[in-house]
Every structure is written in C-alpha cells, then in structure tokens.
C-alpha cells in the first residue's frame, strides 16, 4: 500500500473494543476504519448526516482486514486513510491502523456502492460527491 495520507484520526483502544485477551477485536478494526471514513467525509463537506438525509446511500459491499501486530487496551493509535479510489458506482477506501511510531497494526479496505436513496438502485457517483472527495485529496 502506498505511503500516502489523506486523513488521520487518533484514538486509544478501549476495553469494549478488545477480545478476551485485551487485544483489538477483529470487528473493532472495521468500526475504527468507519469512524475515520465518517470524519473524512465530514471534512469534505459531505457528512454522513447529509448523505443519509438526501442521498446517495453508500452501503458497504466489501470489507477486508489484515492484522500485522496486536493493539492492547489503553494503547494509542492512529487510523489513516491512505487511498480513496472512485469507480463509476463505488468508492474503495484503504486505511491503516498504526502505533504512534508508525508500526502497522492492521490494514483495512472498505468498498461502498453508490445507491439512489429513492429507488434503491445502483447509480453513478454524483458529480457533487465526487468533486467534494477530490477537493479533499
């Protein structure tokens, strides 16, 4: 994955996001990635509150994660959006969870389809959304 950075948020791992060993629970990596995506979209001026009210909808159609090193309860980390690729009808976002010294904890990729909020059918990404995302890059 290229070493670029489009957006970064910080956090500290809370107990509720860990497994029985006190290590980052696999599903929590997706929650942390989604929080970074929400923050990124807010910074672009197209926050999820607006998208949910007016559309388009952006359901997740694919998600994957690879875990490289453990993150334990109370440890600090950053979630970094590294790439954002738009096709005609989807947005693929690649992220990394890293320690403060840039050691990779996990890599995450999430793909959102673009769905018309009125019809529920796949549509091309609206120009306004594509423009807002490209300005933030």
Helix content: 25-40%
Q: Tell me the strand percentage band.
A: 25-35%
Strand line-up in the sheet with most strands: 1-3-4-5-2
User: If you consult CATH, what is the topology?
Assistant: Thiol Ester Dehydrase, Chain A
Total domain count: 1
Would you list the SSEs in sequence order as H and E? EHHEEEEH
Q: Can you tell me the overall shape?
A: elongated
Give the CA-CA distance, first to last residue. Answer: 17 Å
Which architecture would the CATH scheme give at its second level?
Roll
- Please state the CA-atom Rg, rounded to the nearest Å: 15 Å
The major sheet is characterized as: 5 strands, antiparallel
CATH class: Alpha Beta
* DSSP strand count: 5
Q: Please state the average pLDDT score.
A: 93
Number of distinct helices: 3
The structure class reads alpha+beta
Give start-end ranges of low-pLDDT stretches.
Answer: none
Account of the protein in words:
The chain has 137 residues and is an alpha+beta fold. It has a single domain (7-136), classed as Thiol Ester Dehydrase, Chain A (Roll). 26% of the residues lie in helices and 32% in strands. It contains 3 helices and 5 strands; from the N terminus they run βααββββα. It has helices at residues 26-44, 48-54, 127-136, and strands spanning 7-12, 60-67, 76-86, 90-98, 104-113. A 5-stranded antiparallel beta sheet has the order 1-3-4-5-2, with helices on one face. Strand 4 and strand 5 form a beta hairpin. Helix 1 crosses helix 3. The longest helix has 19 residues, at 26-44. The radius of gyration is 15 Å and the shape is elongated. The model has no long low-confidence stretch (mean pLDDT 93).
